[in-house]
Amino acid sequence: MNKRDPHVPNGVRLQKVLAQAGVGSRRLCEKLIASGRVKVDGQIVRELGTRVNPKAVLHVDNQRVFVDDSHVTVALNKPYGVISAMSDPEGRETLADLLVEYPERLFHVGRLDQNSEGLILATNDGELANRLTHPSYEVPKTYMTTVAGIFTPSEVKKAREGVMLEDGIIVPDEFIVKDEHSNRSLVKVTVHEGRSRLVRRMMKELGHPVERLVRTRIGNIFLGKLHSGATRAVDGDQLAQLMKMVGL
Questions:
Q1: Least confident window among 54-58, 160-164, 173-177
Q2: Catalytic: 113?
């Protein structure tokens, strides 16, 4: 099957589109094209006279280039008690209440249960949202959890080797006891699955129910110093790397 020619006779010169997207000067963009470092809709383009659809999917060195400002992806620090939804028939506070400054229709990426806190992403790119939550892409997610009790060495070993739950075994990518105090443990857990309440169920099975759970990372996006209830844009190289993780 022949690939579709990325050249569009009435389109915009590729080097101009790249330059306007902030890749570099027109001359630099021409060098990138000529050296085979530019893809248009998945195809390497070396011809400097190529004209493209301004909405084509462009990559430079396999990193996504955004050619307009219509794409919106946002990192949000979900507070305790907020519902991971854009609306709620019971009138409870939702993610939409925290995203009122964004007029675009946003999809939330995955969810955190009502009693959990931390990083959640929202985007107007439905395909990005789908891929970030699809198990085949194995996007890692990190949680800091405060749990009841002190872990024994054998319990830590069991956690790292895998815990059997009712819907299958969970083997965390990372399980580190960071601190112990007043019969509580602070544990860092990284998983790449998106099963419902996975970390809470794992801890309960280990005999250490969760008292507080905060998600601190999704892929290459970290919660950092983002305050509870606050948002920040995910863009530039950070967004490009996130896209790359899920093949976009």
A1: 54-58
A2: yes
List Cβ neighbours of 205 (8 Å cut-off, separation of 6 or more). 163, 164, 165
pTM as predicted: 0.80
Residues 113, 167, 179, 237: which is the catalytic one? Answer: 113
CA distances from residue 119 to 58, 136, 159, 219, 229 in whole angstroms, order as listed = 28, 21, 24, 11, 10
Segment 230-247, tens digit of pLDDT: 999 998 888 888 988 888
- Hunting for tokens 């462009």 — which residue is that? 58
Q: d(Cα 171, Cα 161) in Å, to the nearest integer? A: 6
Q: For the chain, which domains are there? A: 12-65 (3.10.290.10), 73-136+221-246 (3.30.70.580), 140-218 (3.30.70.1560)
